[in-house]
Fold each of these.
Amino acid sequence: MLEAMGLTTLFSSFLALGAPLTEAGTFPWLSVVTFAPLLGVIALMLMPKEQDQAARTTALIFTIGTFIISLGVMVFFDPQMTLLRGAPFTFQMVEGPVNWIPMLGIHYALGVDGISLWLIMLTTFLMPIVILSTYSAVGKHVKEYMICLLLLETAMLGALVSLDVFLFYIFWEMMLIPMYFIIGIWGGEDRIQAAVKFFIYTLVGSLLMLIAILYVYFKVGAQTGEYSFLFADLAAVQLSYNEQIWLFLAFALAFAIKVPLFPFHTWLPLAHVQAPTAGSVVLAGVMLKMGTYGLLRYAFPLFPDAFKVFAPYIAVLAVVGIIYGAIVAMVQPDVKKIVAYSSVSHLGFCVLGLVAMTPQALQGGLFIMLAHGIATGGLFLAVGILYERRHTKKIAAFGGVAKSMPVFSALFMVIVMASVGLPGLNGFVGEFLTLIGSSRSHFLYFNKPITAQSVRNAETGELGWAWLENTTMPSPDSLQHVGPEITAIILTAVATLGVIFAAAYLLWMWRRVMFGPLDKEENKQLKDLNARELTYMIPMVLMAVFMGVFPNFFLSRMEPAVHQFLTYMDQNITTAKGVVRVEGMDAQVLPKGPMISSDKEEEAH
Amino acid sequence: MLSNLLITQFSTLALLTPPVAAEYMALVPGAIVSVLALIIILVDSFHRPGTRRDYLAYFSAIGLALAGFSAYVLWDNTLAGPVFNGMLYLDKFGLFFAILACLAGGLAVLQAPSYMRLVRMDRGEYYMLVLFSVAGAIFMANAADMLTLFIALEVMSIPVYCLAGYLRRDGRSAEAALKYFILGAFSAGLMLYGISLIYGVTGTTSLEFIGRNLSIIIHDPDPAGALASGNLITVGMLLIFSGFAFKIAAVPFHIWTPDVYTGSPAPAVGYMSTAVKAGAIAAMLRVLLIAFEDPVLRGGFNGFGWLDVVFFCAAASMVLGNVVAIMQKNVKRMLAYSSIAHAGYLLVGVAASSASPEFFLHHDTVLFYLATYTAGTVGAFGVLSILGKNGRPVETYDDLAGLGLKYPVAGVLMGLFMFSSAGVPPFGGFVGKLYIFSSAVQVGNTTGEFSFIGLALVGVLSSVAGAYYYLKVLVSMYMKKADEKADTEMVMTSSAKVSLFASALLTLALGIFPGFAIEMARESMVDFQGPSATTQKVQEQGRQQLEEMRQKEASSRVVADGVPQG
């Protein structure tokens, strides 16, 4: 017995961990990408305290290294891979599953698909830029700051590549710790309140999700006899309609807080405004996407029937968020607050795209995740540059900055335009696809109101609560030929207003900061961008342009995953067979190859 | 197997038969600790005044490590059962708690030298008291009879009362000792009264016989007879439970906790909030699961019984502990309320696993949680006992302001312990909470009794409040400006370093590789001596499952080793 315990178990689990990796005969790309920043943390911990520059350089080297390795993931990712029938996702470069905690059925399993691929790339792309941007912004406790950023990168990448829900949850919660310190130690005036609010708010949602995960986990155990946290096992479990409703609510709440969806957004402006520039960029660029990613990866496919019920409600919240975020952004006197509220608005588009469940909308939603990461990240970087020079973020303090900082002004303009959604830049592609797709959606109508009623259980005779549908569904046959629902069109139309608002508040902000009379003494002395700042601003701008001009580079690699996901949803929503109709749409509506080129040409005429 | 070899060797030496040898084997961990305590008294009386007593800390810690290791060696024994005419049990359950108590005691003892320097109270009695208390805790977990249980309880408690009053120049310490002693004596008296009532009904103090006799009495076909003794049994049961609830600081027997924790020396609080709690939980499980294990007494699905009391105490402790802790300004007081909350989490595990005999093995959640709780809490009090401000140990949030960045080692360690206690992955506290709440969810899921899922929800939501006040410590340490005028110091003796790093390592190990500890906890429950026939069947199933799992592991290891490299 002695030898089966303690250290030996530890060693053997390490051994077992190595085995399948070598067995597959491939390089463990995902493990290496995920844990490479952690090596940086160890390196930093061993460094002496005072050498700030060395700490920065080390962190930069490790993040660039991670980015280079992640390029390997992109190169070896095979978009043509045969898709699994009957599964929501097909993962590649799979590592494991290896027993991690065998008593609880917890595994170490990593994988990547067309949905997570680009979020991984976004994370690794943004991190070196973020590190560069902190060189002058953070002067105290640099080493600790770099450790936090690198830990954050590992946690974010881990959450994206995990195939075991428990592993995902661990990384998901681990993200909170470094971000909490980043906001709380290096943030602005109200940093403590912002950090604590951010932490507690997110924790409430995640813990409810944990209970839901456990519930599904025990269902897995009851139905298969083998307890397991693997996502594939969780997805295979049979859940009653009632269970799905409650579980979906728990999952969706956790992710909606992270996104943040409209009524749960109150932590975001505070956290964004108080966080240091790097924190804001990571928060907006990647961490918010974890919410939308979680919805798509976990909440929707695990509980398809509940999703069908709640989709229109979520869509309404998303549209309210779009308009609300835009209107609130318009009246902010603070540049950073404008950008923060614009995030609420843009993420609303993303969620609308995800719940619309049409190929275009889903791809649009996924594309917005990336575009928003680049555009809003860039905006926060630009705000950070202004703040470092003037130590204020108030719009009223600026004016005519374009004259003293012409290069900055040009780069800032491209980023602003990308965020506004100017055709040719990345923001346009995502929003356009989302709006096109959601107007055709069959998921955004309300002819199935749900009410809670007390009912008597047929078997036990006990009273309980159940969600009842008041009206019957139209038959799938009739749905196949109806046009888009009127609610979908209304929601899309209202959402489109958000695009106009975005142009209004962003361009107005840009005009007030950049143009106008150069009447303030301090603004006349502003220095233009130095080499370091150019080094991190130019890649952002180039990426915004590249994504706008060659969206198909990204979309083509998402497309199989999106289609598989939609097929899965179509087959698994018991009340809505044939509504998504991916195959049919492929032939009739969607041209093969570059998905949006024909749409774009129409727009150009 | 090493232990069996030892037993045979030992028995040839002592001219004893192996079963008799096993009786002495059961004493080994406790005996080592007791002898060690006596030696410490002796050594300390020859101590040259004016020199440091750090060596006593190392000496006690090594002794405790030895005792813990002896328990680990005994783990393999195949002679589980009652020993000394049914006075003690020799089983893995008792050994698990022996290891736990030695761990808590060892870690707390190693923190003492730093704290002694901060308070300028370097005296040898401290070590002796901790050691005697550990011995009491070990015997308490092994008790098979109400008498040994009660004696062990007192052996464990009385040194702790003295430890509470250790800072004799501090008025609050004296207050703590007095409060703890009077209330403790009172609760012990109540418990003794309960034991006497049960004895009056059943005519025995042995846990197993009490269990059997109570079943016979309750299921007496003559309703008058059952009713007459029914009230006595209920009162006796409640009184005994209240004694345990007092020791683990569960609501409504928690009133003493905040004052005692605030007044007592920090490393001693670390010890008393973990080892004492562990000992009391172990004895409570013994009594509830052996003596009162009849379904009628258990209650729950069958009517009112101790399960309902445990359920209520669990919910009340979690809510009250977590909510009141938010408002505290003193960190030790906050940790006192949080320890009430942790008692609530532990009772969630007890309640859920006792819902029906088929969940018997789920008591391992309680054992595992105690392990994670011990690592995190002793560590947290350890950090408090090495930091000083203006010549006294830190106590309030304001005292901690800015210390995290001033003393990075203390800051990082405190962060680790706080996040673990708050239940944030990847630290031990998270897996502990997960395991406890998952057990409650599973019970609710399989029995359809959704009150257990409700209990898990209460626990989860109240632990969010918990996260808030644990974060407040880190807010002070990292985000508040340090008081420039204050004279802060960190007394990091080498022994404190050992203790803190060991706790940190344990917290991380229990979070990232909890497999071995969970397996040990599960084995402890499989090996638990004395329950009824139904439960023994469940234990047998659990043994087979463990066996299968191990075979699977072994075969996968063979496959792993067989893979050619590259």
Amino acid sequence: MTSFLPFNLWLAWRNLWSRPLHTLIPALVIGLSVALSIAVAALGDGVRQGIIAASDPFGVLVIGAKGSSQQLVLNTLLLQGLPVGNFPFSVYESLQANTDKVALAVPLAFGDNLGGARIIGTDATLLELRTAQNQPPYFQIASGRYFQAHFEAVLGASAARALGLSIGDRFQAAHGVELGLEEDLHDEAYTVVGIFAPSQSVYDTAVFVSYQSIWAAHEAEEDERGAQSLIIAAEDADPQQLTAVLVRPTGFAQANQLWQEFYSGTEAQAAFPGQELGGLFDLLGQAERVLTAVGWLVLGIAALTVFLSMYSAMAAREQAIAIMRGLGSSQPTIFIMILAETLMLTLLGALLGRVLGYATAGALAGLISDQSAIAIPIRFLPALEPLLWILPLGVGLAAGLIPAAMAYRVSVSEKLFT
Amino acid sequence: MHIQISGLQHTFTTPSGEAHRVLDIAAWTLESGEQVLLRGVSGSGKTTLLNIMAGLLKPTQGTITFDKRDLYALAEPLRDRLRARAIGYVFQQHYLLAHLTALENVILPLGFDGRAPKSDWRKLGMSMLDAVGLADFARYRPAKMSTGQRLRVAVARALVNSPALLLADEPTAALDAESSAHVLNLIQSLCSASGATLILSSHDPALESRFTRMLTLQAGRLSDTSPRPGTQSVMPAPERSQA
């Protein structure tokens, strides 16, 4: 009955639940303000972590067509938005030849899709990408083999699942990097020869083919004669264009030199993913700050709700308080009891807010992951905890002071005997 | 508990601003264990006197001492503690807390007093409910109980701390004769068993036969109207032994 709580707290608890609506609504409002702050912070943290993890294996520099460097990075690493454009294959060749500065260069050619899954033209250097030099290759074949000939395809783990394709299946690619941009299909068919193990990156949703296949498909499409076989077209296709090159420089200084060279050049640009994502995170941070401010505003409203709830309840409870005083309760006991009620109410709200906040962040992270294929991890944020306890409890304390003072001053003889 | 009242006066200010004296008691002494019927018509000041004795209403003038301690010379927290420990009060409207069960209502004074170990509260509360015949109603809330049952819970609550003084304000006013007799038997026997002093106010003449000492309040003045030879005014205070 009263075994687990000190008497005053037990009484406060019983008082709270004697008017559940007056308790739940303010607790819910407090919960919403806490939930908003937590959801914003946890989701922001998750998006940052997700983007960092998703872009982790893709080298230090991204080379692409001149234009928005942020768009280049987002499109290349996270497959978000449209490509900036293409650049001559000779740029890639010169990078390959520049062994003093370039340790690894992975060519990427975008332009087609299969049921919304991007088709990425590349080569065997993709299999050399690693999160660190001492780590195993990031992309590992789970079944089948890597493509070795034109019009052979390897599917990302998610793509294989989503498209329902398995080794030996054949498919035709569609124009455009996203579903619905261009509905017409290329004539040539690809054959699935392998499926990647899950990499936890956005590339799990993609289909990988040789970049020569992509060129061949487009070249054959433009071939008015249409008499040549597609395979011949692929073999004969002149090096054309790439959308991006992932570069692992030989060192930090070389990375900066490469960036400088591309900056002063006209054919392509180089972008540091970390720098571009940092800019993106700054934007994200601004949005977080606005939403967090909204959360504090809601907390202010919650304080008013708690105050009004306790204040309006006081009129109805004066007699009950007078009865307790008549039974020997002291004024400080009553004061503490009312404060304990408001603190319990805010504590309840703060706990509710945590559940709602992390649940909302988890649900939104799931939605974002579904749409972007970026895994958004939702983590418990211990750094937020002190603030998210102190603020609601401070609000509860402040909101409870006047009702507690009113209760303190209740005249027993007036309330019980007049 | 030895109770002594000296020069007690209490004056209310009426809404029209006039002073209205409701109590004017020169002297009155009550010995430990006595059971007294306090009579008087409605508005005669019975409840005011009981409130003053309970430490809930400071008199305009005069003193009331419990075992030679001036009740109103005590700081309010000490008066609250005295009320929690030594005074039981059965209010006229019973005043049970609606959101608590019968048992929870009964143990409230134990919590405010704080002397009894918490582990004993349930046992003490149940034993009081058993004494008033309501052990089976421990988990009932007041709204689910009859007027008589609520009164018995109020009696159990007033006595759970084994107070030295029990004040009962018109406890049987809302009861029929049979229930009234039952509750009075209960109050008197429990007070006799614990040795508590009882002051019970009522304007019901049917109760007179139950008490050997009766005091009547009329126009704020108290007179001893006990049905025995030598009835005298309360001034000077009557010399009485324990009832």
Amino acid sequence: MARRLPKKDVVIIGLGWTGSLLAHELTDAGLEVVAIERGPWRDTSTDFSPTQDPDELRYGVRLDLFLRPAQETFTLRHNTGQNALPIRWPGAFIVGNGVGGAGVHWNGHTWRFLESDFVLKSHLSQRYGAGAMPEDMQVEDWGITYNDLEPYYDKFEYISGTSGRAGNIKGQLQPGGNPFEGPRSRGYPLPPLKDTAPTALFAKTANEMGYHAFPRPAGNASEAYVNPLGIAMGPCTYCGFCERFGCGNYSKASPQANVLPVLMRKSNFSVRTESEVLHINKDASGTRATGVTFVDTSGQEWEQPADIVLVCAYGLHNVRMMLLSGIGTPYDPKTGEGTVGRNYAYQSAGAAGLLFEGKRFNPFVGAGSLGQCIDDFNGDNFDHTGLGFFGGASITTSNYHGRPIASSANRAPGAPAWGSAWKKQVSSTYQNSSAVAGQGSVYSYRDKYLDLDPVYKDRYGRPLLRMTFDWHENEKKMTRFIAQKCAEIGKAMGAKHVTPRSIPDHFNVVPYQSTHNTGGAIMGSDPKRSAVNRYLQSWDVHNVFVVGASAFPQNAGYNPTGTVGALALMAADAIRNEYLKNPGPLVQA
Amino acid sequence: MAGLPNDPLISRRTLLASTAAAALVGATFGSARGVKARMLSGEVPWAPGMATPPEPLVPNGWLYFTPEESRAVEAIVERLIPGDDLGPSGKDAGCAVFIDRQMAGPYGGAERLYMRPPFVNNASPLFGPQSQLTPAQQYRVALKALDAYCKANHGGKGFANLPGEDRDKVLAAMEKGEPNFEGFGSRPFFNLVLQNTMEGFFADPIYGGNRDMAGWKLIGFPGARYDYRDFIDTVTEPYTLPPVSLMGRAGWTPGR
């Protein structure tokens, strides 16, 4: 029997980037806020210290900071004709857990999506004709434009201390920046990170080929920085332990480094750790949430009443929480009706592995976001007429780690993976390996979606989230095109072995690919085709806001966090300035 | 018994006392290392010893493998990474001991994996491992099958008693999945033991492998240095400082 706790103004499910940003904004507005986080408390000084952090086995391989499948996993099938199977070992994607969420273990790539990404359906229809897209492609406009989101992108970059070089300030192109980006109101708060040998070589080569290289926008502080909350970041030391690791230098943007030192000291904020929300509760009308029910580590269930419920977990978990709680109507791929679970998408990689000869890259000198990019083949920055696909990728040579266990797999095509011959070449491949890699879009399709699994359950007996997903022809063609571009650049960089890689015939859950799962609770302007409105407010239950990459109608050729942070800040603004005055739907359906 | 206090402004001291009491209740739903649900407010919590340190190797014989199994694993890692003028073998670098400790711990016991039924046999490998065997059980079953395979095909000799070249032939066949292992496939087992051997050879020495940082010296990885600001402007020069482990270096800690 659940025991009832005193009511709060706001309850937040999950204390990662979105939860901590919203908690900061709403406590500033004077509200009583409690966050409920199923993972542990973690902080820089205690959990990520330089004497503990650079431990590849523990964090990089055994994934100590991540959600364990034993706690919750997903099931997967390629199409509705199959029985889904559980993802028993971590594989294609690895999901954050604990205070800070994915903001602890990310690399720090802090992108803005392209202007055309936000109006994708209308843009492609206008440029190529409404019939140009594959019949089952289900891309949508976001219900907002880039310009609507720009102030919040800016705010997130200044809170998180992004290092980069602007390409477009108020419509004026800036030398050395990304000429394809939407206009920004000002430059980045910090200058770009320094380059290493492979990233500098990529930039030089790409520019010589007529492309437009620019430093990747990095949530790794290139210099000491104090953010608008008054929290200080230390300069990045290029230690090479970002992705899958915490940061011991207060240099990588994270809730711990950029928000929590202020948030935790507020008397109107509290967080319950190691406490897992089971479901959101609704009143008898079904149109208003009354709070959440969670379970603690002793197995005791608690009811936390609240006026506003913010769903701020990992995107896939947001969708599952809605399905478990009966918020919105589940999507049915046969009829196309229902919205929760609709427009799931992922990220696609077209790339070229590079192996040089006679170099000394010293790859251990790196930073999570250290890289040089081109956007010439991203989104609709290039003419897709006659190509047979839509979408594209940001293309990057990065230098984010030289971790030895991971690097031991680097080798020339056909070279042995073990024995004397392997040993003779491993030191050379360690110093000579690099890549040109595309971070590619995945568009949404009628038959790719999320729902609850009918067979497999979690440790509390709740159904797992079932993913119905496989690669479509559009993305296969696109990644082959991108891999070819990557290979051309790699050859021009002088690599001896260039190995193009595109996505396979069928989605394989085993090798790590990307943790950028998107959609399932998408935003939009039509309640029949979106689960939340432009403020991430549920169309069906007005005091529930669902915040995260679950809101993306399809995925762009970038990492999601910059856009996720901006959406959270936009939702916070709407709650502070509109919803609190007059609680109810912010957009009339 | 309640796991959480009701008062949102309860002090941390009270909270710790109450969670300590809750810890006595017995079986819990907590995740790692017996951490308990708690409520934090009004401060950034910090207490000495709050961090969860790595769990270093305890030097005490074999913890998981039987004597026979340990000889077989040593014979495998010695061929996957042979000793030569470039440095010690996987065996001499401690890879077998490393694997033994991993099998005795949460990794070997599949504590973090999803192990709920139903288990589906013969699923497409695209959906990932579906075995109900833990990694430790996979070693047990596959090592037995390996021994039987070698005895049947190499004049009654187990894997550990084969000459090096014959062991290489068996391993190469396993890499292709040719031998039919009862209970757990030869190819997934080869992939598992190769992965675990590389982990042992290149992980921090704190876990029992990579003895004297031999793996790191082989490739030129400086270990837990954590600050290359002085070096980034000359990053293609040789990095001259020797590697350092989470435990420091032998020269810094006399008696080690």
